[in-house]
Amino acid sequence: MSRLKSVRCGVARAAGVVLVGAFAATAMTGTAGAVINGKDATERYEFMASIPLTVPSAGNAKGVCGASLIHPRWVVTAAHCVGQGEGGAVLDGTVRIGSDRRTSGGTVRAIDRVVRHAGYSVMPGTQPNRNDIALVRLDRPVVHQPIRIAEQAGAPGTPTRLLGFGTTVEGAGPDEWKFAERLQQLDTRRGTESECAPGFADRTRLCTVSREAGAMACSGDSGGPQVQRGKWGRWELIGVTSGPGDEDVPCANGPGLYTNATAYTGWIQKTINTNR
Known about the structure:
This protein has 2 helices and 19 strands.
């Protein structure tokens, strides 16, 4: 999810959003944003992961995408974050897990394998990507606690939370983005399909609305988690930051679109089981 059309579409369309974070971002900091007008993380999110990127076409600017640890050796992220050159960004080859800092702390592992959903496709114009989800296998397991994928996303109106290292300010491009060094969080809610642009939200894509004025994920936040409280009050994963929920509005002024992780549990389990 990015801010302006080029950023928003990029964030959702290519690992270029990847410049650093969700909606991918660059050296400064996230397509769902480093969460514009979010706040510093108030608790420890052991499952939070970040995937650093480099953008040769932007003077080798450094960026990042978010991800979530769902297995001791696997993280889930957006397919557009791991395009290996898609949008001009390339993976640096590592994943940082369990840190509330973008460039330090936690556990760093090398990327051993990347599996994008076979049905992933970049749609023309401003239409959202399809099946925007991918799995990244780490070279070795980590000791951090993975997050559980919810059985289903809560009904519209359910309180949720976004996490990311993306840009904290709107901007027309990488030169104007300011990526967060410390993990940002933003309280949101599940929106109805009609709160996103026509044709954007559906069974596999969640419309997400901020509970704060002028706040939403943005460039550099792509691939990061949207979570909800489970039965016992623990965080559960429901969404993967994918892009903007409308056609052309700055990040902070529009809804966000999240790949519905609960709709892909079968694919996720099969992928992990066949790639041990």
